[in-house]
Amino acid sequence: MPEAAPPRWWRWLALSAAVCALDLATKAWVSAAFRLGETREVTPFFNLVLWHNPGAAFSFLADAGGWQRWFFIGVTFLVVGMLLGMLRKQPGNGRLGLAVGWVIGGALGNLWDRVTLGYVVDFIQLHAAGYYWPAFNVADSAITIGIMLILWDGFRPRPDGAPAPNP
Predict the structure, then answer these.
(1) By three-state DSSP, how is residue 155 classified?
(2) Which structural domain range is residue 93 located in?
(3) Is residue 91, in this structure, part of any structural domain at all?
(4) d(Cα 69, Cα 66) in Å, to the nearest integer?
(5) What is this structure's pTM?
(6) By C-alpha distance, which of 164, 17, 31 is closest to 101?
(7) 113 is catalytic
(8) Do the domain assignments include residue 64?
(9) For the chain, how many structural domains are there in total?
(10) How many other CB atoms are there within 10 angstroms of residue 80's CB atom?
(11) Whole-number Cα distances in Å, 160 to 153, 156, 163
(12) For every one of its 167 residues, what pLDDT tens digit does the chain have, with 9 covering 90 and above?
């Protein structure tokens, strides 16, 4: 008897792996090429900079004393588990699969940093008119794109006219 094919939702994990690999590769490159705090202007609004962030988005809880590392690791496992559950419930929803693939890949890239380094490596810095946004990385970008796609998927009507399902 032929072996059963893996469930369709597994294909989105390949996207997650690619996002995670790209994130880790870019962080390794910047960490090798820059000193901590070093900034290189690329365009009038975009810099590369090496920064270590022990907190979350916008350095949230960065000065919390160390417990936040374990908190964010736990939250990452919880969120990834919930997203995998969403994928399993809606294996044919390509928009959701794409979104979840981006978020899981980014979450795992930042998780790797937290577990192995104790902080997240950030290196992309945007600025305009003297205002500098907090540095971020490929994983943060993937998470942001994925969340926007999840929101879009949740509000967009289904082809059959049915309301969007609750995850």
Answers:
(1) helix
(2) 8-56+76-155
(3) yes
(4) 6
(5) 0.84
(6) 17
(7) no
(8) no
(9) 1
(10) 17
(11) 14, 12, 9
(12) 556 545 677 789 999 999 999 999 999 999 999 999 999 999 999 999 999 987 766 666 656 666 777 888 899 999 999 999 988 888 778 888 999 999 999 999 999 999 999 999 999 999 999 999 999 999 999 999 999 998 987 787 766 555 555 55
- CA 76 → CA 21, 112, 127, 132, distances in Å? 17, 11, 29, 27
**CA atoms of 87 and 98, how far apart (whole Å):** 10
22: in domain? yes
**Which residues on adjacent β-strands are paired with residue 49?**
39
Range list of β-strands (E), 13-82: 39-43, 46-53
Classify residue 63: in a domain, yes or no: no
What backbone phi and psi angles, to 5 degrees, belong to 3? -75, 140
Active-site entry in 23, 113, 140, 153: 140
- Is 122 a residue of the active site? yes
Q: What are the residues whose beta carbons fall under 8 Å from the beta carbon of 65, sequence distance 6 or more?
A: none
Assess contact for 90 and 120: CB atoms under 8 A: no
Among residues 63, 122, 153, 160, the one annotated as catalytic is 122
